[in-house]
Design a protein that fits this description.
The complex is a heterodimer of chains A (131) and B (292). Chain A is of the alpha+beta class and 131 residues long. Chain A is built from five helices and four strands; from the N terminus they run ββαββαααα. The chains are: A alpha+beta (131), B mainly alpha (292). Chain A: One of its GO terms (cellular component) is ribosomal subunit.
Amino acid sequence: MTAITVRTRKFMTNRLLNRKQMVVDILHPDTPTPKKSEVREALAKQYKSASDHIIVFGFKTQFGGGKTSGFALMYDSVADAKRIEPRFRLVRHGLAEKIEKKSRKQRKELRNRKKKVKGTKKANVGTGKKK
Amino acid sequence: MTVNSVFEEDLPKYGALLNDIEHELEQISEVVKKVDSSIENELSNHKDGIELFGLKNSCMSMYLTDLLNVVGCQLSGVTISGSPLVDRLIEERVVMERIKPLEDKITYKTEKLTKMASGKMAEDDPLNQKPADIDDIDFGSDEGEMEDEERTAKKSTGKYVIPKNRQAFFDEPGTEKAEERSKRKAIRGAMADELMKDTDEPEEINTGELHQSGKMSARLLREEKEKKIFEENYMTRTRVEKRDRHKERDAMKKSELDTLTHFGDYSALTGAKGEPKRKKKKVVGGKSKKKR
């Protein structure tokens, strides 16, 4: 395990959102920027919680390397995190699945085609055009 | 010397000592009773709370009693393991050790006050005094500046009262009031600064990896500091425009030697040609907006 020092600043308990939020400073001399999972584990050990409760984002490494700063949110439970966090962050942490959508252009084209038709025929628009 | 002869010499001494102990025990017990009763009298008045010194005295007497108890047990062969005696001793010891630093802090002040009360020392005698306690200094507040009506209005309802539109007086720099105000401001600023240094994280000084000499550096540093404060307060990262990113990249590429050797354009004084103006090149065939 590489020698990483994790320090937290501006620690605040946010009771309204059931979490503790803080600014995280990581000192990692001679190693590249540590992965988010490593940081989560280090924080979990420091604050005696599960690394599942911890959401970490916004890491920026200073020029020259060695020091990175970012933000961390420590929720009371995974359910709280799933309820409050935006979807993209949950996907990054593996707590939710990415919703696969068609491309924006295709969605707009389909919508415009549907506009030309009235009633139950709208359901057939997509399937009809696939020919 | 044989063992017997030593024994014979010491035996009468031992007897005399035991007699002495018996006689002096009576006197000692009287003194102890006096001290005990005086301690209890002091503590019996709980109206204003238990005072620190009274607590210390009673704790000390209890500790000594328990200590003697332990000695008595050991002399008579009774075990002390598991008895409440040991717990009591530990508790009293801890209490006294906790009291000690508090006592050290207030000792000087109590001594001074008692001396002044008993008349041994004049109040303003500067020779016998240390610098005053920080709590005793009156730094003064800004209450004198608010008008009475405003103050009463604010206090009575608790609502925000819009300040009246009134003349702002100019305090001449020489006058007493202006000097007082400036003094107060200076003290408050320095104090606040010192407190911040103690509580917040250590102050970081930019040594110059991105150092640019001239007027730019102070502004850039200020901007960066503001940005950092904003980002940490709102827990977001600000968007960096392409232009700013390019500027940063160029700043990193620029070597310090250029900035050190650049002394500014003073051609106007010498009448020389001066530096050529940098022309912004027009990008030929750049991206044009798509025609839709």
